[in-house]
Request: fold
Amino acid sequence: MMGLGAARPLPEICRSFRRSASKLRSTVKAVTSSNSLHFELSWSQGEGLDSSFVEDPELVRLATLLRPFMMEASPIEFRGVWSRLVEERVVDAATRERIDALIASADTSPVRVVLNDEEVSVRDLYFAYGEGRLFDCKPEAEKMLKLLAFGPMQRMVPFLYYNACLIYSGVVLAIREAIQEVERRQVTDSADDGHGPRCIYCLSRDGDFGSEDHVIPESLGNDELVLRGAVCGACNNSLSRLEQSLLDFEPVAFFRVLNVPYTKKGKPPRADFREFTMEKVKPREILFVSKTKKDIFVPEEAPSDLSRYSLSMVSRRPFDPARLGRALFKIGLGLVAYDRGVEFACDPRYDAARDFIAGRRGMPNSLLMESTVVPNPSVSASWLPSSTATPVALDIFGLRFCFNLEATPCPAADVVLPETLMEFRLGGEDDG
Reply:
């Protein structure tokens, strides 16, 4: 949805880093207070050397929350962010020296591991277990993990991995403190277009504008498309339930568990359906629990080297296009404000959308949805204004929607839609 960190303004990078680090902070406290990071090595006559390590759920949560800070392509990768802070000279010499020392110390393993006469670094261990088992199955990482996983090392490798996670988390939290100090000295307001704050939903200039508003819900993994000074406190509170309407839409709920590593509270995502529940217990493991005695997965024919199953889903409630539409139109109007500014989004051409989002009346056009889904792990949004319409396209994990943010009916009544498109009228429905 956004480019890499180097292309983004430093205040935006700092904000994203700080918010994500705040989620990490509580998990670090839970791990350290519970002593869940525990490795045992024992020897007994006749049995030889043995080891034990329990991969506690809090440790998995710690690794999951830390991962965006460790991935080179991430906009909040901690080494890149720290280099940016140093390059722009926003941290003092003492802070720079202290955090540089922490990074150097984190890269030094407490246990010397030698493989083929070469010492294995902490970053190598982190890569081997994280990308070879926990989060991915990259061939080069799997190869290194296989070489390391012998005898007691089978359990020591994950122990060293999570120990590295805990140490690197300390570095991240130290950078977070440095960022907080930078933010205290720098006051920025990128949403004020020189006209003072104005709410894009109610058009008011009164009230509290201190809250942030995520264009795409944070619960879907977005922490980059954020509005500041564009939504009043009253609308922020009253419209927050629309986010839940989108999350409760069963296909979105299903794909959210598959693709989102954690909720905005830093917990594994979970979904509750009519016949089963599903919960992400590890980055690559989903736990399905049937509410009935019937199997929820039905085996299907597949090539001899593969296993394939189908899963049917029955909705718990009747589908309400207006309820879903209001949540999607809110995203659309927020996208316009993010891209073109608050005053542009407050244009009268979007008054009908504002009334629809607020639940005051229906929308005299349609919501279009693709009937077929090609799943993907991302969420994207685009819009293209013209003289007569503002079409918005949303792709939520492969669920594709399209609508006109203006009152002009779209499509026209005499237009024949492709078979892959479903049209839901919004004009006469209002869920208040």
